[in-house]
Amino acid sequence: MPYYRLKDLIKAIRACKTAADERAVIQKESAAIRTSFREDNNESRYANVAKLLYIHMLSYPAHFGQIECLKLVASSRFADKRLGYLGIMLLLDENQEVLTLVTNSLKNDMNHSNMYIVGLALCTLGNISSPEMARDLCAEVEKLLGSSNTYIRKKAALCAMRIVRKVPELQENFLSRAKGLLSDRNHGVLLAGVTLITELCSQNTEALQTFRKAVPLLVKHLKSLVSAGYAPEHDVTGITDPFLQVKILRLLRILGKGDVEASETMNDILAQVATSTESSKNVGNAILYETVLTIMEIQSESGLRVLAINILGKFLTNRDNNIRYVALTTLNKTVTIDMNAVQRHRNIILDCLRDGDISIRRRALELSFALINESNVRVLTRELLAFLEIADNEFKQGMTTKICIAAERFAPNKRWHIDTVLRVLKLAGNYVREEILSNFIRLIAQTTELNAYTVQKLYAALREDISQESLTLAGLWAIGEYGDILISGGSFEEEELVKEVTENEVAELIETILAGPYANQVIREYALTALMKLTARFADPNVIRRVRAIIEQYNASIEVEIQQRAVEYENLFQFDAIRPSVLDRMPIPEVKEETNRPTYDEDTTIKPRARTHDLLDLDSDEPIVSTPGQPSIVNTGRKEIDLLADIFGETSINTSAPARTTTAATPIPNTKDDIMNLFNTVQPTVPTTSAPLNNLGLDSLGLGGLNTSGSGGQPFVPTQPFTTMQADILQATPVQQMLVPTDINNMFPINQAVAQSGIYVAFDKDGFNMSLQPAKDTNNPNILNINVIFKNTGVGAVVENLLLKVAIPKTQKLQMEAPSSTTITPGGTATQLVRIANPQKTNIRLRLRLSYETATGVKVDEMMEFSDFPQELW
Amino acid sequence: MIRFFLLVNKQGQTRFSRYYTEFPVPPEEREVMEAEISRRCLKRGEQQDIQNRRYASLFFLIGFEEDENEFAILEFVQAFVETLNTYFDNVVSRMQIDLI
């Protein structure tokens, strides 16, 4: 028995205990509904569709109800229409063909007298219109935007916004009306209008200009909202219409961005909103947040910015996690712009490091790193180190790297630097990256004055704790290098006790490390090397014997590297004469370069080419010349290849490998011939990308846009293709090389149109002759101007309605002018200009379709192909 | 811009969902995605661009674009629930039994 009402159905479904039960109920009901639809019962249709929609919400199939929804829409009852439109919005999407049937109903309903029905139609259109429907009904929507009814205006504005989002081309229709909406008094319409304008502005920069003029109006609205008294209709816990305020602020943001004048107009109101909105509740915070975002993005004055950052600082003290999170995120974004203002809140940020919520900690950490500068580096580092101790493991690696980088950049003195890194190693040695470690070692080596201090501290640290790998490695290295200093320096302070270090103790320490549970292969390697070095530093023969014994133990180690080292070191003992010098101190590494400069080892070889180019660069429109030697060679290489491809139409270029990496591997066999065939573009077997660049070289001889074969250049420079144009000194010799076997004369007609003024007959039949007269364009060698000549030689009547259609390959572009005349008397001619742009120098193949009628009633329609242009014309 | 709107109950079952943009996810995967999102929010872990409000046993999840004001979204949810309340009488108490 089908459930008659929706409520009963819901109760029944709720009563089901299992999912299978529920499925059964729904299936039975679906079947009942389907039967009822087939009976086409008007009264029950309403209830049935309602049930169907509920079933759809539970994600069971409901597509069979679509037509029923349409029928409901067609009914005259309001409830029916409402449910019908709702069903349409839920069950259909814009791809369904059924949707077009709705278009008519929508149109009628939009002109209905009942405003709610108009509203329904607008709502549906906004939600699911396809682009075609939108285009059809756009005019209606525009009309409704000017309606006198506020409800309708609001709905129309929303609908317009959805349409604009979906079909951006229809924007222009709404521009003028949109502005009018801003003067509306009704908040709903105002809100919808602001949203519409926001959407228009974000899509279209011209609209942006138009709406900038509305800034004063918006400011006025905002002002009245902020300073208004209690307005019961729009009040939300004490603040008048916060939604509208936020929207206006956002629109101001978009309008003020990048525009100084508009930003100035807004300054006052922004300050007012920022200071007068109370922030005890979420509502106030929402408005303040939006204000802060706006201030940050427009060209605001610095006082305003400081105000904004102070607001963010206040957010940070708020107890609500959400607010603090948002504040930290925003500060992260702004700290790059304005660091000083953020410094004031440093303490609070550092407090956030200890917050309970991990995402807050993470944000605070990022922010703290961004805040480090010379003046506060000590304080901040101390805090960060303290945090490192208790930090979660996932932070540790990032932190160690960043702390060390910060220390390197801002270290006030070397000793502090070493101390800091040392502390990092002690706290989180297992999470330190290799580069940091090697930087540290380099630093130690470079600060010779502190060697004693460093090695002592490392020794002390190792005595305490050998579990941190990086610390162990650094310590081992230092002890190995500076073991003598350690001994002779003699004493070091450990917990205010001065201790003597003996050679024996040192050896013992290393032995412990080797035997300990934390030793892995790398540590063993370092340890062995350190021990070996010590034999040259220490004097006590007992110790040396001990060391030697240790090394001997590893003669048979499973790890090949260890075994090799042990055996080799053993052997070294037999060369006592040179042993000390072998194990002498390492030279101090040089200062590391901060920046990465790409290596151009091809520089030297490029030069001859480059010079040549500059020498003979007669072509001013060579696009590549402009950039002087720049570091990003690889990228420009690619770009240049593209440009070259354009110019020379080298179809073999589609690889992405920059030209410089390919040496012209294939020496072109046909050298002499090609030189003679300079006007040909034939590039049969040039697989490498070096070809076009050689073209360029040839080009530099002033061949301009001639689509010469690069082969002319190739015999001269067998290797490197070049990319950059280094403005270098011109030299004669390279040029000589270039010119070796060539006929310079041949190369020169160049910029003149290679007037191959042949005439090619394309069609000649029944007394009608069509011929093509091609000529290369003088200004642009890529363009071929074809003069088409139609002759009425023997048709016997006047030719009328002459029409020529041309089709070309995809890589080319076509432009046709109107023919001189579409009628040709017998014996007469007509001409038509056809221009083909062929940048890629592909084969010009024309498909021509000629049609005409004669006065005698004969209709001719012929199609033909023509590809007989010689290659020099391409 | 609001991207989607989900209502989820405490057990993580989606009670209602509405998408406002073309989601690059076919319908079958949507359920999986919804489960994932609701799981993340129920754990109260990181919430990127998803706002979450809880009313009785029902979670309102709203996903939005990055330039949207988070607090405004929360206000919006509040306004929405209040509207439902006045329109359908006592929605809040009804939510105890998970009835929409």
From TrEMBL, chain A:
<dbReference type="GO" id="GO:0016482">
    <property type="term" value="P:cytosolic transport"/>
</dbReference>
<dbReference type="InterPro" id="IPR016024">
    <property type="entry name" value="ARM-type_fold"/>
</dbReference>
<dbReference type="InterPro" id="IPR002553">
    <property type="entry name" value="Clathrin/coatomer_adapt-like_N"/>
</dbReference>
<dbReference type="InterPro" id="IPR008152">
    <property type="entry name" value="Clathrin_a/b/g-adaptin_app_Ig"/>
</dbReference>
<dbReference type="InterPro" id="IPR013041">
    <property type="entry name" value="Clathrin_app_Ig-like_sf"/>
</dbReference>
<comment type="subunit">
    <text>Adaptor protein complex 1 (AP-1) is a heterotetramer composed of two large adaptins (gamma-type subunit APL4 and beta-type subunit APL2), a medium adaptin (mu-type subunit APM1) and a small adaptin (sigma-type subunit APS1). AP-1 interacts with clathrin.</text>
</comment>
<dbReference type="InterPro" id="IPR008153">
    <property type="entry name" value="GAE_dom"/>
</dbReference>
<dbReference type="GO" id="GO:0030121">
    <property type="term" value="C:AP-1 adaptor complex"/>
</dbReference>
<dbReference type="Pfam" id="PF01602">
    <property type="entry name" value="Adaptin_N"/>
</dbReference>
<feature type="domain" description="GAE">
    <location>
        <begin position="755"/>
        <end position="870"/>
    </location>
</feature>
<keyword id="KW-0472">Membrane</keyword>
<keyword id="KW-0653">Protein transport</keyword>
<keyword id="KW-0333">Golgi apparatus</keyword>
<keyword id="KW-0813">Transport</keyword>
<keyword id="KW-0968">Cytoplasmic vesicle</keyword>
<protein>
    <recommendedName>
        <fullName>AP-1 complex subunit gamma</fullName>
    </recommendedName>
</protein>
<dbReference type="GO" id="GO:0016192">
    <property type="term" value="P:vesicle-mediated transport"/>
</dbReference>
<dbReference type="InterPro" id="IPR017107">
    <property type="entry name" value="AP1_complex_gsu"/>
</dbReference>
<dbReference type="InterPro" id="IPR011989">
    <property type="entry name" value="ARM-like"/>
</dbReference>
<dbReference type="InterPro" id="IPR050840">
    <property type="entry name" value="Adaptor_Complx_Large_Subunit"/>
</dbReference>
<dbReference type="Pfam" id="PF02883">
    <property type="entry name" value="Alpha_adaptinC2"/>
</dbReference>
<dbReference type="GO" id="GO:0005829">
    <property type="term" value="C:cytosol"/>
</dbReference>
Automatic annotation (TrEMBL), chain B:
<comment type="similarity">
    <text>Belongs to the adaptor complexes small subunit family.</text>
</comment>
<keyword id="KW-0472">Membrane</keyword>
<dbReference type="GO" id="GO:0006886">
    <property type="term" value="P:intracellular protein transport"/>
</dbReference>
<keyword id="KW-0813">Transport</keyword>
<feature type="domain" description="AP complex mu/sigma subunit">
    <location>
        <begin position="1"/>
        <end position="94"/>
    </location>
</feature>
<dbReference type="InterPro" id="IPR022775">
    <property type="entry name" value="AP_mu_sigma_su"/>
</dbReference>
<keyword id="KW-0653">Protein transport</keyword>
<dbReference type="Pfam" id="PF01217">
    <property type="entry name" value="Clat_adaptor_s"/>
</dbReference>
<protein>
    <recommendedName>
        <fullName>AP complex subunit sigma</fullName>
    </recommendedName>
</protein>
<dbReference type="InterPro" id="IPR016635">
    <property type="entry name" value="AP_complex_ssu"/>
</dbReference>
<dbReference type="InterPro" id="IPR011012">
    <property type="entry name" value="Longin-like_dom_sf"/>
</dbReference>
<dbReference type="GO" id="GO:0012505">
    <property type="term" value="C:endomembrane system"/>
</dbReference>
